[in-house]
Amino acid sequence: MYIEMKGMESAVKVQKVSKYYGQVAAISNISFNVMKGEIFGLLGPNGAGKTTLINIIAGIIPPSSGDVEILGYSLKENLLKVKSLIGFCPQESVAYDFLSALENLLFYAGLYGIPKREAKRRAMELLDLVGLRDNAKKKVGKYSGGMKKRLNLAIALINDPQVILLDEPTTGLDPQIRRMMWDKIRELKKERKTILMATHYMEEADTLSERVAIMDKGKIIALGRPEDLKGELGEYSSIELEVKEVVKGLDEKLSKFSERGKIIVTGENRLRLYVKDPDLVLPHVVETAVNLGAKVLAVHISEPTLEDLFIKLTGRRIEEG
Amino acid sequence: MNWRGIFAITLKDIKSTLRDKHTLFWLIVFPMMMIAFSAFLWAAPHSPETLKVGVVYQDSGIQEYPLNATTIVQTMKEVQIDNQSVFDVREYDNFEDALKDVRQGQLDAAIVFPEGFSKNLTLGFPASTEIYICASDAYRVQITKSILDAFFREFSEEIINIRIGYVPEEYRDYAKGLAIPLQTNVTEVTPEAIATRRGLLGWFTIGMVGIEFLFAGLTSGALAVVSEREKGTLRRLVAAPINSWDLLIGKTFSSLFELAVSTVTCILFGLALGAKITWRFTDPAYWMIFLLFLLGGIMMIGMGLIISLVGKTSKGASGIAMIIAYPLMFFTGIWIPKWMLPKSVRVIAEYFPLTWAIDAARDIMIYEKGISSALAILPWLTLTTIVIYLVGTLAFKYSMKQIA
Predict the structure, then answer these.
(1) DSSP secondary structure, B82-106, as one string
(2) Fewer CB atoms inside 10 A, N or C side of chain B?
(3) What is the value of pTM for the model shown?
(4) Distance from C-alpha of B386 to C-alpha of B233, rounded to nearest angstrom
(5) Residue B193: pLDDT above 60?
């Protein structure tokens, strides 16, 4: 799969990249481009191969085959140069607890060979950006999880990179802090930074990304603009029925209401069907379930999401992995 | 080489050390404690031994003869060294009670004066005593035996000198030869370093430097990669434009700094306690010590890096480092003098490269032997350091690959 956005220059070119551990393929023959100034999302469940792919693009592990180009530099041929162009923000905190935020930033600036005066100026700017200036001299060990994530982002930006790799940037954060992180990422977009973001949060990928690659079992199974991908589902809404127990014949009976494809059992006690007019169909769906002896616990109606597409393609929810 | 990156790693690790109370304890307080304990336990001036001795009189002629067993016992009671009695004498009515106390460790020895002892002693016949020594351990037996031997030998000589006065002058030497056919002069030889308290303390101070190299060097090498991996920072470090050499050199520099801090602490503390440690600015031998310590430090860090292959977690790696370091502490002659080690174990001390460095440093700083012993081991020390560090480097590079 190789989709380009016309009229735009590539910042990241992933070319037929595979990674094998023994006989097991962590990722298999992946290709895509990320355009300059674009936010590109890698969406998939845990174990889909997102982190392996990010690790390869960041130059942390070598691919078994294929290559990656960052701003025209081949990873294979110019590893250190490529690393100097990238800002990498892994999901775990990379700040040292015994150092202050400022000291952490100065340490990472040192790794990028940034002179001390310039490093200090840049560090203070970034602390402003992520809202940690007031805590600049506080030991990171005393930071909250959200503050550490924001500092992670600042560290990723210390070398003023053109390409930023974010690996699960908001995992473990509460919704408020997550939205704050999203705002910071949008600010980076305004600065024409290219952002490649791996996430297993469907909403995060949908909200932030201009294009999304959906990954599963080491492969890209869909790639495109979120609205285009969701459009593949047509004008269908989903009805998710949560029952105490899926009684015999329930999915078969309900499938006649699903106007697009077979009914999908998303969990042990959840059934999802796609309909054009949910308000009209819903009473019949519930009635059918009750008549069959199923105890209905909850009903959710939603517009098509990227998760629906993932379910359509894999038969599983993203969270299930 | 990204020297700014190397400096950043070194500085970061130094800050980590200086801000970690646990590490500071092991680097600074622990060696000071060990040196202080050594000064208190081993380098302290020894007080004279007092032997607990039981005496049993089986001799019925005590009242009849002027020179009798009580004369000897009375003398024993009066013998003092540095105002301390050499013998704590208890008199027993019967042999069984005295023997029982020896068996129970209440007495170091029991002396039995048999029937006829006083008569023989007075009339010039051979007078013998039976001595029963508590054989709790060989060391104690040796001490007891030598003190009693010395006492009886001296007492015999006194008696001979009195008796010899009754012998015509021209026969006295001949008669003395008959009385004491074999005269022995015992000279005790102790290793030079422990001949004085200051020397002994100096020996242990340099030994403590070696122990710190052993423990801190091994541990810092073992944790170089593991701790970063466990913190989750290794991936981020590898994503930065530094290569594994930069990271390794930065880590090595910071570990050497730790060892330098500990070494200076040990030596200053040893000197403060009165250790004999010399330094002469004009003598190149003393500057050689920096090289010896540098090689020793790099070697131990290299060994630690090899350990990191096996230890997958910080606890595991430092645990393995400790398991290796503890026996080496006792078997390498760094902390326990080689002459105290069993012959079979002494082989380890002879071939352990860090011992070469520490012994050479002792030769220069304590024994003042000059540069010769350092020069003798320098080629081998350098070679083994290079080999061990290179193997450690390979282990480090392998560990770095275990990111994903």
Answers:
(1) TTEESEEEEEESSHHHHHHHHHTTS
(2) N
(3) 0.72
(4) 29
(5) no
